[in-house]
Structure formats: structure tokens, C-alpha cells
Specification:
This protein is α+β, with helices and mostly antiparallel strands. The protein contains four helices and nine strands.
């Protein structure tokens, strides 16, 4: 009968596959992978995270990448200073893979939510005062724009004929969520009302607003340009 060998513990399996050098190289590779995940998460947070969901996902991606790097460094140091074990390496690899998956999900969500063609502008119209002394307030909002794009809103009055003149104009940049809003106020209002014109990328929108129906929310009619 041969001599029995001592039973190996699960945490010692990594040491039988290779020495400290082998474990150190593996941790270095996994650590670099974790760094890549961290950098990718930071890029997503800076460039693509325009909603709360994508911000949270990008933040989790960065956190997992940092934890993966920390676990890989801990495993490498442990391999050099004591008996090498694979537990830290496995943890770092798992965190890196999970971070990569979250990063991919973040990119897909950001791509799905990325603004395309702007939605139809809407106007909240309010009329105050009395005949001969009207004050017309028009709040215009356009969703679905690309952050930074310009919404050009202008109010026109009429002299009763075919000619128009400008009563006010506003150029507004869309915010980080792709929404642009502005408020136009005029006191130069006659009984025929005004015409609101809104230009956004790809759309030319216009709507007549008579005084009799001034207090309402109006969806402007648009055509492609």
C-alpha cells in the first residue's frame, strides 16, 4: 500500500497549477481587464449617460471595474508575499466580466434612448388682460432633440392683410435630456391672434393661435425640411 496524500483544500487548488509567478501574471492580465472596464464606464458616464438609468448603470460599471482592479492587485501581492491562491484572481475576473456586461447594457440603453428626430413642439398659451390691453404668454417645448441642438421659436403678428411682422423670437439649446423649452411674451396682440413658428433640426412647425382659444395646450403642425 502506498502512502496516502493529504487532502487538498479548494483554496489551495490554484497553487498546484502554478507558482507565484503564474498567479502574478494572471492577476496582472485580469487587472488590466478591470482597468479597461473602469475606463469604459467613465467614458459612458461622460459621453453617453444622459438619463438616470444610464448614469446608474455607468456608475456601477466603474465601481465593478475598480473592485476588479483592487482584487487583482490584492491577489498579486498575496502571491508574492505568501502562499498563492486563486480566490482573488477568480473574484477579480468575475467582477471584470460583470462590469463588462453592465457596460454593454449601458451602451445599448443609451443607444436606444438616443434622441433621433425631434418630437412635435407643443405650446402652452395663456392670455391675460382685457380687450385692447392683452398680454399673450406662450411657453414652447420640444422633446426628443439631440442635446445642444437649437430650437428657434418666433411669434408673428399680422396687420390685417397678408404681411406679418415679428413680435418676439428665442433661440434655445436642448438640454442633456434632449428637451428645449422657452417662453415668449407679447402685448402687441389684435383680435386675429398670432402665429407661432418653431424651427428644429429636420422640422418646420407653425400654428395660428386666435385669441378666442388662447388658453390651451397646442400641438404645432410640422413638415419635414
Amino acid at each position: 500500500m502506498g502512502e496516502t496524500t493529504p487532502e487538498q483544500r479548494p483554496e489551495d487548488l490554484g497553487s498546484s497549477a502554478g507558482g507565484p509567478g503564474h498567479i502574478g501574471v494572471t492577476n496582472a492580465v485580469v487587472g488590466l481587464f478591470g482597468v479597461a472596464v473602469t475606463v469604459g464606464g467613465l467614458w459612458l458616464a461622460e459621453r453617453r449617460a444622459d438619463t438616470t438609468v444610464t448614469e446608474v448603470l455607468a456608475g456601477l460599471t466603474v465601481g465593478l471595474g475598480v473592485l476588479a482592479v483592487a482584487a487583482a492587485v490584492f491577489g498579486a501581492v498575496r502571491a508574492l508575499t505568501s502562499r498563492p491562491r486563486a480566490a482573488s484572481t477568480v473574484m477579480a475576473a468575475g467582477l471584470s466580466v460583470l462590469g463588462l456586461v453592465l457596460g454593454a447594457v449601458t451602451g445599448l440603453v443609451a443607444a436606444y434612448d438616443e434622441p433621433g428626430t425631434p418630437g412635435h413642439p407643443q405650446a402652452n398659451v395663456q392670455l391675460a388682460g382685457n380687450p385692447g390691453n392683452w398680454t399673450l404668454t406662450i411657453q414652447v417645448g420640444t422633446p426628443g432633440m439631440t442635446p445642444g441642438d437649437v430650437m428657434d421659436a418666433q411669434v408673428f403678428g399680422s396687420d390685417g392683410g397678408s404681411s406679418e411682422f415679428s413680435l418676439g423670437r428665442s433661440l434655445t439649446h436642448a438640454d442633456g435630456s434632449g428637451f428645449a423649452t422657452t417662453t415668449l411674451v407679447t402685448t402687441q396682440v389684435n383680435d386675429e391672434g398670432v402665429r407661432l413658428a418653431v424651427l428644429v433640426p429636420g422640422k418646420d412647425c407653425s400654428q395660428l393661435m386666435p385669441l378666442l382659444n388662447a388658453t390651451r395646450i397646442v400641438a404645432l403642425s410640422c413638415k419635414a425640411k
